[in-house]
Amino acid sequence: MDYFKSLAHELFSTNFETSPSSIQFIDAALSCTSPHFAPSYTDPNQKRIIRRHLVSLLHDYLSFKPSIDAFMHEDGTSVNLLNANGELQVSSSTPAIPLTIWLHESYPFVAPIVLMSTNTTYPIYDNHPFVDSSSGAISSFYLVNWKYPGCNLSELVHNLVKIFSHNHPFYYSPSTDNFFHPSFASRREAVDRLSCTLHYDMTELLSKTHEEVVELSSLREQMVRRAIVAEFSVDENENERTELKERVKILTDEVDKLSNWLKVNDQDSFSGHEIEDAFEATDENSKTLLDCLAADRATEDLMYSLDKAVEQGVIPFGTYIKQVRLLAKEQYFGRAKLEKMGISLQWLD
Q1: Distance separating alpha carbons of residues 288 and 345, to the nearest angstrom
Q2: How far apart are CA 42 and CA 31, in angstroms?
């Protein structure tokens, strides 16, 4: 593209606002047939429309100048396209906006590609409704609804002036606020302002929705943890319930056995017998154990009675000592017998 850059420099070096120079550059670019420099516009009628629209744009907005360069599409395709670049001044109190308007190879049936330079003194708003802060791509209602022959470059830039006068893309400190009254707006301006309002409302709604999603996700995690704890508690309670049911069954069986025993061994059944006869040992060891335990308890009772008797002076102290020695000797042999049977003396405490 060095040929066209040299031509542009020669044509615009003396006076940028000279319209014949701009027209001469456009005509030279559109008539070029070199495979390296020719633009990607093949239809003669298309070229006439492009020429007319570019000339009208450069006539209405003198800050723009024509150029031609390689343009890389998102799919990697490279094409030679005409473009108009310059600084758009929307008001005297706001910074100028550097723009490049690329004419698509299918222009005017496909909308032009409008890019704003990101290498500027002022930073671009991160959440601007019409400008992508990272790429500088501009998207407005006019571009989205582009339709030939109703749309052209001059009206596009006029529309950009309107929307940027109310929503400037740069961070800056404005000296005065722009006055706007709904009755002064055209239908297209009203739609642009409405889309801008909807953009900010949608951004705010998305932010709130994101916060709610995060909050609900945290709540869901808490509920899952509580559900796990509750499930574990239910399992523990179920196990405890099963154990209690088994325990109740065992106790019920024991109660039945005791009730049956009481029915057989009631008070009338032992009117002429000792109450001890109601309890029988199941084997010889058990019988010996019962006898030893009974003798030990009887010895303890007798020693207690002797203590009381000597305290009250019923028996002399010498007789008390003699009887206690005999009882202690018998108790010792009885407990030794229990030890040989493997019975702990703790049962006697």
Answers
A1: 15
A2: 10
* Per-residue confidence (pLDDT) for residue 93, from 0 to 100: 82
- The answer to whether 114 touches 94, Cβ cutoff 8 Å, is no
User: Cα(233)–Cα(239) distance, rounded to whole angstroms?
Assistant: 10
Complete edge-to-edge strand list for the sheet that includes strand 113-116:
65-72, 78-88, 97-102, 113-116
List the structure tokens of 55: 């000339």
Q: Sign of the CA dihedral 190, 193, 196, 197?
A: negative
Residue 297 structure tokens = 């308890």
**In Å, how far are 219, 266, 275, 349 from 270, measured between CA atoms?**
73, 7, 6, 30
CB–CB of 161/113 below 8 Å? Answer: no
**What letters, b where the CB count within 10 A reaches 16 and e where it falls short, cover 175-210?**
eeeeeeeeeeeeebbeebbebbeeeeeeeeeeeeee
Quick check: bond before 169 cis, omega within 30? no
Using one digit for the tens of pLDDT, what is the confidence trace for 127-159? 788 888 888 899 888 998 999 999 999 999 999
Peptide bond into 149 cis (omega under 30): yes
Q: Which two tokens stand for residue 285?
A: 């060891």
CA distances from 29 to 6, 20, 66, 168 (A): 12, 14, 10, 33
> In the structure encoding, which two tokens stand for residue 73, read together?
């599409």
Environment class of 162 (CB within 10 Å of its CB; exposed 0-12, middle 13-18, buried 19+): buried
Q: Is 310 helix (H, G, I), strand (E, B) or coil?
A: helix
Percent of the chain residues topping a pLDDT of 70: 78
Among the listed residues 57, 46, 69, 73, the one whose alpha carbon sits nearest the alpha carbon of residue 23: 57
pLDDT: which is higher, 52 or 38:
52
The tens digit of pLDDT for each residue in 282-334 reads 777 778 888 888 888 888 888 888 888 888 888 888 888 988 899 888 888 88
Residues 11, 256: Cα–Cα separation, whole Å: 120
Q: Three-class SS of residue 235?
A: helix
